[in-house]
Amino acid sequence: MHRPDDAPSRGVPRDVAGMPGTAPGTAETWLRIVQVHDRVTRRVDSALHQLHGLSLTGFEALRRIAEAPGERASMSEVAEAVGLSRPGVTSTVGRLVGEGLVTRERSGGDRRLLHARLTPAGRERFDAAARTHDEMVAHLLTLLGDDVGVVTDALARVSAAARTRR
Fold first, then answer.
1. Fewer beta carbons within 10 Å, N or C terminal of the chain?
2. CATH code of the domain in which 101 resides
3. Can you say whether the dihedral through the CA atoms of 82, 85, 89, 95 is positive or negative?
4. In 3-state terms, what secondary structure has residue 162?
Protein backbone atom coordinates (compact mmCIF):
# COMPACT_ATOMS: atom_id res chain seq x y z
CA MET A 1 0.00 0.00 0.00
CA HIS A 2 1.34 3.46 -0.92
CA ARG A 3 1.63 6.30 1.51
CA PRO A 4 0.73 9.73 0.13
CA ASP A 5 4.26 11.09 0.75
CA ASP A 6 5.75 8.34 -1.48
CA ALA A 7 3.74 9.37 -4.56
CA PRO A 8 6.18 12.04 -5.91
CA SER A 9 9.19 9.74 -5.61
CA ARG A 10 7.65 6.77 -7.42
CA GLY A 11 9.66 5.85 -10.51
CA VAL A 12 12.47 8.32 -9.78
CA PRO A 13 15.83 6.60 -9.31
CA ARG A 14 17.93 7.55 -6.31
CA ASP A 15 21.02 8.00 -8.49
CA VAL A 16 20.22 10.31 -11.42
CA ALA A 17 23.76 10.21 -12.86
CA GLY A 18 22.81 7.40 -15.25
CA MET A 19 19.68 9.12 -16.52
CA PRO A 20 19.71 10.56 -20.04
CA GLY A 21 20.15 14.32 -20.07
CA THR A 22 22.10 14.52 -16.83
CA ALA A 23 25.67 15.76 -16.86
CA PRO A 24 28.34 13.11 -16.30
CA GLY A 25 30.72 13.50 -13.42
CA THR A 26 34.33 14.61 -13.83
CA ALA A 27 35.68 11.08 -13.37
CA GLU A 28 33.43 9.66 -16.08
CA THR A 29 34.28 12.46 -18.52
CA TRP A 30 38.00 11.93 -17.94
CA LEU A 31 37.61 8.16 -18.36
CA ARG A 32 35.80 8.64 -21.68
CA ILE A 33 38.48 11.02 -22.99
CA VAL A 34 41.24 8.56 -22.03
CA GLN A 35 39.34 5.59 -23.49
CA VAL A 36 38.59 7.31 -26.79
CA HIS A 37 42.17 8.51 -27.18
CA ASP A 38 43.60 5.09 -26.33
CA ARG A 39 41.23 3.08 -28.51
CA VAL A 40 41.33 5.35 -31.56
CA THR A 41 45.11 5.78 -31.49
CA ARG A 42 45.71 2.05 -31.08
CA ARG A 43 43.36 1.24 -33.95
CA VAL A 44 44.86 3.84 -36.29
CA ASP A 45 48.43 2.95 -35.23
CA SER A 46 47.77 -0.71 -35.99
CA ALA A 47 46.38 0.06 -39.46
CA LEU A 48 49.30 2.37 -40.28
CA HIS A 49 51.80 -0.30 -39.19
CA GLN A 50 50.10 -3.05 -41.17
CA LEU A 51 49.40 -1.10 -44.35
CA HIS A 52 52.27 1.41 -44.51
CA GLY A 53 55.01 0.31 -42.11
CA LEU A 54 54.60 3.50 -40.07
CA SER A 55 53.77 4.12 -36.45
CA LEU A 56 51.16 6.76 -35.67
CA THR A 57 53.93 8.90 -34.17
CA GLY A 58 56.04 8.52 -37.32
CA PHE A 59 53.03 9.37 -39.45
CA GLU A 60 52.27 12.50 -37.41
CA ALA A 61 55.92 13.59 -37.72
CA LEU A 62 55.75 13.06 -41.49
CA ARG A 63 52.51 15.07 -41.61
CA ARG A 64 54.10 18.01 -39.81
CA ILE A 65 57.09 17.94 -42.16
CA ALA A 66 54.92 17.46 -45.27
CA GLU A 67 52.70 20.42 -44.34
CA ALA A 68 55.60 22.75 -43.46
CA PRO A 69 56.80 25.34 -45.99
CA GLY A 70 59.15 23.62 -48.44
CA GLU A 71 58.34 20.27 -46.77
CA ARG A 72 60.98 21.17 -44.19
CA ALA A 73 60.45 21.54 -40.43
CA SER A 74 62.71 22.11 -37.46
CA MET A 75 63.02 19.42 -34.83
CA SER A 76 61.28 21.70 -32.31
CA GLU A 77 58.35 22.24 -34.71
CA VAL A 78 57.97 18.50 -35.16
CA ALA A 79 58.28 17.87 -31.41
CA GLU A 80 55.65 20.53 -30.61
CA ALA A 81 53.20 19.29 -33.24
CA VAL A 82 53.51 15.63 -32.24
CA GLY A 83 53.89 16.15 -28.49
CA LEU A 84 57.33 14.59 -28.25
CA SER A 85 60.30 15.36 -26.04
CA ARG A 86 63.66 16.26 -27.62
CA PRO A 87 64.95 12.67 -27.35
CA GLY A 88 61.60 11.38 -28.64
CA VAL A 89 61.66 13.52 -31.76
CA THR A 90 65.32 12.66 -32.36
CA SER A 91 64.48 8.95 -32.21
CA THR A 92 61.36 9.25 -34.39
CA VAL A 93 63.10 11.35 -37.04
CA GLY A 94 66.08 8.98 -36.88
CA ARG A 95 63.82 6.08 -37.82
CA LEU A 96 62.31 8.10 -40.68
CA VAL A 97 65.83 9.00 -41.90
CA GLY A 98 66.80 5.32 -41.70
CA GLU A 99 63.87 4.42 -43.94
CA GLY A 100 64.77 7.12 -46.44
CA LEU A 101 61.58 9.10 -45.79
CA VAL A 102 63.26 12.28 -44.54
CA THR A 103 66.72 13.80 -44.49
CA ARG A 104 68.31 15.89 -41.76
CA GLU A 105 69.87 19.21 -42.67
CA ARG A 106 71.36 22.17 -40.89
CA SER A 107 69.86 25.62 -41.18
CA GLY A 108 71.90 28.02 -43.33
CA GLY A 109 71.56 30.93 -40.88
CA ASP A 110 72.12 29.01 -37.66
CA ARG A 111 74.15 25.83 -38.01
CA ARG A 112 72.91 24.66 -34.60
CA LEU A 113 69.35 24.30 -35.89
CA LEU A 114 68.50 20.91 -37.35
CA HIS A 115 65.63 20.45 -39.80
CA ALA A 116 63.94 17.44 -41.32
CA ARG A 117 63.06 17.53 -45.02
CA LEU A 118 60.68 15.13 -46.73
CA THR A 119 62.18 12.96 -49.48
CA PRO A 120 60.22 11.87 -52.58
CA ALA A 121 59.84 8.41 -50.96
CA GLY A 122 58.60 10.14 -47.80
CA ARG A 123 56.03 12.12 -49.78
CA GLU A 124 54.79 8.95 -51.45
CA ARG A 125 54.55 7.02 -48.17
CA PHE A 126 52.93 9.96 -46.39
CA ASP A 127 50.28 10.43 -49.11
CA ALA A 128 49.28 6.75 -48.99
CA ALA A 129 49.25 6.65 -45.17
CA ALA A 130 47.33 9.95 -44.96
CA ARG A 131 44.46 8.42 -46.94
CA THR A 132 44.29 5.48 -44.52
CA HIS A 133 44.60 7.70 -41.43
CA ASP A 134 42.11 10.32 -42.55
CA GLU A 135 39.50 7.80 -43.72
CA MET A 136 39.68 5.85 -40.45
CA VAL A 137 39.50 8.96 -38.28
CA ALA A 138 36.67 10.45 -40.35
CA HIS A 139 34.70 7.21 -40.06
CA LEU A 140 35.14 7.03 -36.29
CA LEU A 141 34.25 10.70 -35.83
CA THR A 142 30.99 10.27 -37.75
CA LEU A 143 29.81 8.58 -34.58
CA LEU A 144 29.68 12.05 -32.98
CA GLY A 145 26.82 12.90 -35.33
CA ASP A 146 25.51 16.44 -34.96
CA ASP A 147 27.63 16.92 -31.81
CA VAL A 148 30.91 17.11 -33.74
CA GLY A 149 31.11 20.93 -33.58
CA VAL A 150 30.26 21.10 -29.91
CA VAL A 151 32.75 18.38 -29.00
CA THR A 152 35.50 19.93 -31.13
CA ASP A 153 34.98 23.39 -29.61
CA ALA A 154 34.89 22.02 -26.07
CA LEU A 155 38.05 19.97 -26.54
CA ALA A 156 39.82 22.96 -28.11
CA ARG A 157 39.02 25.07 -25.03
CA VAL A 158 40.34 22.39 -22.68
CA SER A 159 43.44 21.90 -24.82
CA ALA A 160 44.17 25.63 -24.89
CA ALA A 161 43.72 25.94 -21.14
CA ALA A 162 45.96 22.93 -20.45
CA ARG A 163 48.74 23.98 -22.82
CA THR A 164 51.97 24.63 -20.99
CA ARG A 165 54.54 27.18 -22.00
CA ARG A 166 58.04 25.80 -22.49
1. N
2. 1.10.10.10
3. negative
4. helix
Range of the domain at 79: 53-142
| Domains: count for the chain | 1
Question: What are all long-range contacts of 57-61, with beta carbons under 8 Å and residues at least 24 apart?
Answer: 57/82, 57/84, 57/88, 57/92, 58/92, 58/95, 58/96, 59/126, 59/129, 59/130, 59/133, 61/89, 61/92, 61/93, 61/96, 61/116
Q: Half-sphere exposure (CA, 13 Å, Cβ side) for 67?
A: 10
Residue 72 included in any domain: yes
The stretch 128-132 carries a mean pLDDT of 97
Least confident of 38-47, 74-83, 102-111, 150-159: 102-111
pLDDT (average), residues 57-67: 96
**How far is it, in rounded angstroms, from Cα 39 to Cα 53?**
20
